[in-house]
Amino acid sequence: MASLQTTLLILGASGDLSKRLLLPGLATLLEVKEDWDVQLVGAGVEDLSDAEWKHLVHEAFENAQASKNEEDEGATGETELAPRLQAVIDASSYRKADVTDAGDLTNLLADCRHDPAVYFALPPAVTEKSCEQLAHLDLPARTRLALEKPFGTDAASAEHLNDLLHSFLPEERIHRVDHFLGRSTVLNLLGLRFANRIIEPLLSSQHVARVDIVYDETLGLEGRARYYDKAGALVDMIQSHLLQVMAVVAMEAPASIDADDLRTQKELVLRAVRPWGGDAVSASKRARYTAGSVGDRPMPSYADEDGVDPSLETETLAQLTLEVANWRWAGVPFTLRSGKALGKQRREILVTFKDSPHVPNGLSGAVLPDRLCIWIAPDEMQLELNVNGPGDPYTIDHTALSTTFNPGRLSAYGEVLAGVLEGDATLSVRGDSAVQGWKVVEPFLTAWRDGDVPLDEYAAGSGGPDGWDNIDA
User: What class of enzyme is it (predicted)?
Assistant: First the structure.
């Protein structure tokens, strides 16, 4: 008998998120969880025939398989999938539906053979309307909901959405998805910090000068103007993802890696976060890209991208400096930065340690700060140290010790779906933390809306605006 029997019901199954991320993630999950019985049901506004739906799923599964095997890159046409994956496709179904209509939702739930995990691959406003209808339906006993971030549009709307969801489901069956921190990345960070006595004692204001968390992308808008032009880099990446990364980096040791213990420690960090120096104006920067080239790819100015309203002054690069005002971290600046159309892709956590209090006379050379560098996807670590060089023993050189973390067997969305389907909320953001994330960024959003922080510019393909430190790699 299967160790888990469940139905994955995807609302918005014909959309980009489903095709590009969810369905390939499901394929990687099914290959690992061979004894799981997962029924796939899709719903969307498009009128797809049964054959068209199965072809769509087959292509998504095929893409997941190709990305795992380098020899498959560039292959075209359908390839033979593993029998298990093909069986899931053959048993799957699709229904054209209005997911904000109680009758259509009732019919979709009736199509589910097992207790469903309902995944909202939909815009936030549509997701909320759908949940308003679900609140009045008789749901199966173990129904779980998975909602993409951003969760709400501010603290008040996030609290309202929490109240709506809690009116018909307990918190442990609500998954506010954050794919950015896959299970393997979280566990790698926890293992590095708490499974040894070398790194952890150094991670405090006594030894750390600054912490930088950078997520720079070479991609531009990529047709996402409808969403991105109203969100911008601050909401899209920092509020939604990088605050969660910071919470894992800064939190105290949890008693266990269970969802309750882990999420409680992250929430305590978020409650302690303040703008650096108490001033959201001086502690933040924003910019947007102008025309340029990323590699050999020309890119228009953001203001000229299709669907963009230049008068909104949406930023494509955001940088905040924060303080975790608690005993461990008070006085250490945490800088979070994320942007698009930059010259180099960077997914980094950089911990810069304070200078040595005294270098004995007689030793020479460039004494640089010791630094712990952690890269996300692929997950790697490098510890940069000052040591006596291989030549003159009186000369200090800078060297690096490197290692590669376990990458895990699942894609980021495979990790997310694993948690949702088996009811493990470890990778999900708890309701109070979703609200607190908005409270952290609201002083900055207010200052930006009031025009107190200038909108700088940087050429697409550059390292960022002139005059910014741009955080040394």
Answer: oxidoreductase
Known catalytic residue at 166:
no
pLDDT in tens, 291-336: 999 999 999 999 999 999 999 999 999 999 999 999 999 999 999 9
Determine which one of 136, 241, 358, 398 is catalytic. Answer: 241
C-alpha angle 256-260-266 in degrees, rounded to nearest 5: 85
Cis peptide before 378 (omega within 30 of 0): yes
Q: Report the length, in residues, of the chain.
A: 473
N- to C-terminal Cα separation, the chain: 51
The DSSP bridge partners found for residue 8 are 40, 117
Q: Between residues 59 and 411, which one has the greater pLDDT?
A: 59
What φ, ψ does residue 367 adopt, rounded to 5°? -90, 105
> Which residue shows structure tokens 């023993």?
393
CA–chain centroid gap for 108, Å, is 29
